[in-house]
Amino acid sequence: MAIGIELGETKSGSQTPKLNEKKFEIKVLKWLEKLTGADLIVTPFALDELPLAKGTLKEHMEAGATLVQIKNNEDLTSSAGDRLNYSLAKMIEWTPNTAQRVLLPIGLYGCDRDGFVLVNGRKTHFKMKFKAFQIMLGSWCDGGGRLEYPLARRSMLEWWLISKEKKLREYRENNIKLAFPNKVVINDYVDKDKTLRIPTKAPDGLVLLANFPGIGKTLAIRLWKYFNGNAAAALEALTDLGAAKHGGFSLPPGIGIGKVRNICRTIGLVESDEEYQRLTVTLENKNPNIINVIVTKTIDELLDSELPF
């Protein structure tokens, strides 16, 4: 991950805090604000993967890079009108998504008894009615930008950038976020606004694996990824003790023969020196996501008792 910062934000007198180069890969840019309206750009690429330059800017933005306009304390109230409008207009030229056009205020904003804006508990030199202040911030959002909740102190900027980098990395590296329906709200819809959010899905086959004896949620996700979403193949491998003993073992690293033996014993599959029972799993319509699993007989008869799933 890398951060590009406008040259003017690094000079003495700037209110933007100096970033720790041990925590971030930083590139100082002379053209950033003039071209994009931003003080910072946070990109999911490392600089050795894709340099930060005018010629590569479009590729950074298509990967989810975020443009950030920072407003410290009174600078926010004095930016009403053309300054903020200009920044947002330039951001829109480069960004496909609303979530990539960020206004980040720093400071504690309030309202005094007369209806004027307070910054960090004090009146501002640029007197502004709080109603007008609220309208100004709303206009940023209405115009296609994203307003971050104000950071209380400038020292919190590094923390914010670290969390933003993490989100962008997840967005770049994951097409789908796996989850379970009793824990999260599933949002696999098509997002018309193209927000930077990973779609969340709970495939039936994944739920089946999670509820299978001896597996659980954490192992289910590992198996799901290892077998490319094929729950049938995962179940067959998990119950194939014969293959495990004779070198035909195909499971994720860290899952050994002991795990397979325990699962087989739990569901009542017989183990002997000469023969092994295993599951042959077929799924309706040959779709590995469908939960209706049919267990068929293999080498020997399975036990009369029903399997516990």
What does this structure look like?
The protein has helices at 32-36, 57-62, 74-77, 82-94, 130-142, 157-173, 204-211, 216-226, 231-238, 241-245, 257-267; strands at 2-6, 25-29, 40-43, 66-72, 101-106, 109-111, 117-119, 122-123, 146-147, 177-178, 200-201, 280-283, 293-296. The strands form 4 sheets. It has a 6-stranded mixed beta sheet, sandwiched between helices. Strands 6-7-8 form a 3-stranded antiparallel beta sheet, with no helix packed on it. Residues 183-190 and 282-309 have low confidence and may be disordered. It has 2 domains: 2-173, Rossmann fold; 203-296, no CATH class. It is α/β, with parallel strands linked by helices.
Give a quick summary of the entry:
The chain is α/β, with parallel strands linked by helices and 309 residues long. Helix content is 33%, strand content 16%.
- Main sheet strand line-up: 2-1-3-4-5-9
Shape: elongated
| Total separate domains | 2
Order of helices and strands: EEHEHEHHEEEEHEHEEHHHHHEE
Mean pLDDT, as a whole number? Answer: 77
Number of helices: 11
Binned strand content: 15-25%
CATH hierarchy, class of the largest domain:
Alpha Beta
**Counted beta strands:** 13
Largest sheet properties: 6 strands, mixed
Classification by helices and strands = alpha/beta
Radius of gyration: 28 Å
CATH topology of the largest domain: Rossmann fold
CATH architecture grouping of the largest domain: 3-Layer(aba) Sandwich
End-to-end separation: 44 Å
